[in-house]
Design a protein that fits this description.
This protein has 429 residues and is mainly alpha-helical. The protein contains 17 helices and no strands. It is globular and about 60 Å long. It starts with 6 loop residues before the first helix and ends in a 25-residue tail after the last helix.
Length: 429
């Protein structure tokens, strides 16, 4: 009997991490339609005041990710990916319970701090994929991971909107159950991707702090250029995170249930793009051209959101915006090609720190812009100003990415050093 193909365990490991990320995203997606409304209830003062607090919550969440992402990346390089993912999943479960019970805004605030810390585990998930995937397949694998985000946002917001229709805190209890289920799944099923011989020899705080992690990018100039584009793309994303719920409520009168369904549509389109189109288009267009096309389509989608005259036109923009998901997986793949295998966790930590750094001021920027341009003091009534600014940022990112990769040689995809194959799971699935 012939031994199994060496890529079989790698493929299985990608499936394992896909399920892990999917359950995590489900837990986050469920609370999206209701969190702004719960903040509005606890803060009082209407939509404009709620927008300010939503911005503050988003900033806090991102600040925690900024600090903790490189720490988790470095810890996973030293001790393995599985342990970091398990601890984060358990922490999320406990945190959602705290948020479900929060009687005051300050306790919800503390819960958001813990969410930001635990959500930094997505750094480790990306490093996991780099561990178990050959160079030539990484764009498709990152696309599959992106599809997990998409599927999570299909079911999560729709379910959260439905549950929020009955009680605004019910989605938090459901999110807690999902996160604890993810912990159990990971404990019994998720294999380790980084064998001991490929781990860092020590944990270095100089590299684990967010600024030290960013120094890694200086050693790879082309990665640094792409990282700037990645930062601008991440900053633009916070226009959706911080204003989508309140914007659609203000302009179209959408409640949690409708918002949940439309976010499910976003998730469906994003999942199809990243799971199907990325894998098919990378061999035909190449990673660079596909990345740049994704940036441009994303920018056009944001512009359409901000300029849409009505709800139907706004909905039509969703598929166009989701085609922007073509850009992320090849960009990540290009960056992993330039970095040594034992530094993949640090790379993903640095990228997560950039995204989180954008989130430190992005939510407040977009939320306060939205609040200003719908207020009585607005220089002009322009509710879609946040999306228009996001469109400009993404287009600038496209130009930066084009310049950074203009002289980058196409990867040869020479055989890697043996990728970290998963060890046996602790128990049968």
């Amino acid at each position: 009997m012939n031994p199994p193909a060496p890529h079989a365990p790698r493929r299985a490991a990608v499936v394992f991490i896909f399920v892990t990320v999917l359950i995590d995203i489900l837990s986050f997606g469920i609370i999206i339609p209701v969190l702004p409304h719960l903040i509005e209830q606890l803060a009082g003062g209407g939509i404009a005041r709620a927008a300010t607090w939503v911005g503050a919550f988003g900033t806090l969440f991102a600040l925690m990710q900024f600090v903790c992402s490189p720490i988790q990346g470095a810890l996973s390089d030293r001790f393995g990916r599985r342990t970091v993912i398990l601890i984060s999943s358990f922490g999320l479960g406990v945190d959602f319970i705290v948020m479900a019970l929060a009687p005051k805004l300050w306790l919800l605030f503390i819960g958001r701090i813990a969410s930001g810390i635990c959500a930094a585990s997505f750094t480790t998930a990306n490093a996991y994929v780099a561990d178990v995937t050959p160079r030539e397949n990484r764009a498709a694998a990152f696309g599959l991971l992106g599809a997990a985000f998409g599927v999570g946002f299909i079911v999560g917001p729709a379910l959260g909107g439905l549950l929020g229709h009955f009680h605004v805190r019910l989605p938090f209890w459901t999110a807690a159950a999902l996160a604890l289920l993810n912990f159990c799944y990971g404990f019994f099923v998720l294999p380790e991707s980084l064998p001991p011989e490929r781990r860092s020899t020590r944990f270095d705080w100089r590299h684990a702090n967010p600024f030290g992690a960013l120094l890694l990018l200086r050693r790879y100039p082309q990665v640094a250029g792409l990282a700037v584009a990645f930062f601008l793309l991440s900053l633009a994303q916070y226009s959706l995170n911080s204003t989508y719920v309140l914007y659609t409520d203000y302009r179209y009168g959408w409640g949690p249930q409708t918002v949940g369904y439309t976010l499910a549509l976003v998730g469906l389109c994003s999942g199809l793009v990243q799971a199907v189109l990325v894998r098919r288009l990378v061999p035909r267009l190449g990673e660079r051209r596909l990345m740049l096309a994704g940036f441009v389509l994303c920018g056009l989608g944001y512009f359409w959101f901000g300029a849409a005259p009505g709800a139907i036109v706004f909905l039509v923009a969703i598929p166009l915006f989701c085609l922007g998901g073509l850009g992320g997986p090849p960009a990540q793949s290009i960056m992993t090609h330039q970095v040594d295998p034992h530094e993949q966790g640090r790379l993903q930590g640095a990228l997560s720190s950039l995204s989180s750094f954008a989130g430190i001021f992005g939510p407040a920027l977009f939320a306060n812009l939205f609040a200003l341009f719908i207020s009585d003091h607005a220089p002009v009534h322009l509710p879609g100003v946040a999306f228009l600014l996001a469109a400009a940022l993404v287009m600038i990112g496209a130009l930066v990415a084009a310049r950074a990769t203009a002289t980058m040689p196409a990867p040869s995809f020479a055989p890697d050093a043996p990728a970290g194959l998963p060890l046996a799971p602790r128990a049968e699935p």
